[in-house]
Amino acid sequence: MKLSVNMFKKSLLVIVFLFLFFPILQNNLNFFKAKELNGVFNHASDIKFSFTDWLNQSFQKEKGFFLNENFGSRNLLVRVNNQIRFNLFKKAAIEEVLLGKNGYFFGNTYLRSYCGEDFVGIDTLINKCRLVKELQDRLEQRGQIFLPVLAPNKVRVLNEFLPNDICKKNSSNYEVLISLFKKFNIKYIDFNAHFSQAYKKTKYPLYTKFGTHWSVYGHTLATDSIISYLNFNYKLNTRKMVWDDIVLSDSLRDPDNDLVDAMNLLFQQQPFEAAYPMVSYPKNKTESPSLLVIGDSFNFGLEKTNFHNEVFSGYKFLYYFKQVFPNSDDPMALYKLNLMQEINNHKVILLVTAEFNIAEYGWGFLEKATGLLNGKIRPEDLEYDNVVYMMKSTILNDKSWITKIKEQAERENKNFDSLLNGTAVYLADIKIFKENSYKNLQIKLLKDRIKKDADWMKQINVKAKEKNISIDSMTTLDAIWQLNQIK
């Protein structure tokens, strides 16, 4: 009996040691390939040993981050931990996921907006609405369309499935914005209102239990509505969406399972049936107006219907007014765009926004677009600011460059930000005069230089009177002459 007890203890000890050392063995011998974790991560990079980094302790810190992310079976153990938390404690391992009633998952970001926790104040929203109204009216006078599209908030539409007393309801950006849209007589589409009225009546779910965005069925319905709205209200004659069939499947497609995927569980959740429409766009003699979209991730759902290629032309998507799709490999692509040209070249401009993004409504597009159209912002000034921004980003992505500027700031007792901006402006000026594509900016910089020269401006005044033209026109002529001399 005693022997068997000892054997049991020894066996148990061996199992414990194997369990403890298994990550090391897996890391070196790679017994099996673990499934990658879903989501976007800032992966820690490995660091080479150096005495300098060792003495300032940066080596220990960065090496620790790297090892914590790269030990054997880490992904498997993360999934096991997440599954235990979910099954035993009914909690999600990530902050974004909220577990609701009847197996519904919600996004906490959307909940905070629904509860009014990110309310920016009525004055801010009034100013935004004034910009929307001005932009809508100015473009309509030019025969163009600017249409705000408010994407639906699952938390708002399906609030009956939220946990009890989950938040104290305050004024929200969405509710105030809608009231102001009506007050300012702004044309818009509100899918929060549409989905709230329709979700109990529709045959198929507008949201799945595991998704935070509208379901594939929901975004297809929304796309059809946008096309119909534009044709009816603006007298367009585009191709129409035709619903050929609906396929029911319990194999969920993106984005119908985006929340449960983000939880990185070990086992799949109980499957349920979702609807996947099959649509077409019959070809006929219709127009294909060019389309520009400024929006967030909800626009990716609209894109899945391929409406942007089948119904429209010249499509461009400015994601969060930061990234350009398609062909978004260049992180500086937005700052290389001529925004005035983009506005002029697109018949239809949509602003597609989820509720939680109303706090930053338009992401700067409204201010820049209205400024360009009403003449308060000159296209060349905006283009110059973009070049300076690109140069500043180049510096900030270079650690050695940042170190040099910091050392200079300390040595000369100057402000780091001022030196950084000054360096970016200097580099921007060099770039502008090196590249032929910046002719307008070259003239702008030369004009600015002329205006700072009092003697030169006296000559400009005299020549302007002789030619009977404005001082600004004469300054431009002199700047062009000087540019030709340089070249």
Q: How do the strands line up in the largest sheet?
A: 4-3-10-7-8-9
Number of helices: 22
| Helicity, as a percent range | 40-55%
Total beta strand runs? 10
Radius of gyration: 29 Å
**What structural class do helix, strand and pairing data support?**
alpha/beta
How much of the sequence lies in strands comes to 5-15%
Q: How far do the termini sit from each other?
A: 99 Å
How would a textbook summarize the main sheet? 6 strands, mixed
The rough form would be described as: globular
Low-confidence runs = none
How many discrete structural domains?
Answer: 3
- Average of per-residue pLDDT values: 86
Describe this structure in words.
- This protein folds into three domains: 88 residues, no CATH class; 279 residues, no CATH class; 102 residues, no CATH class.
- It has 22 helices and ten strands.
- It has a six-stranded mixed sheet with strand order 4-3-10-7-8-9, with helices on both faces.
- With 487 residues, it is α/β, with parallel strands linked by helices.
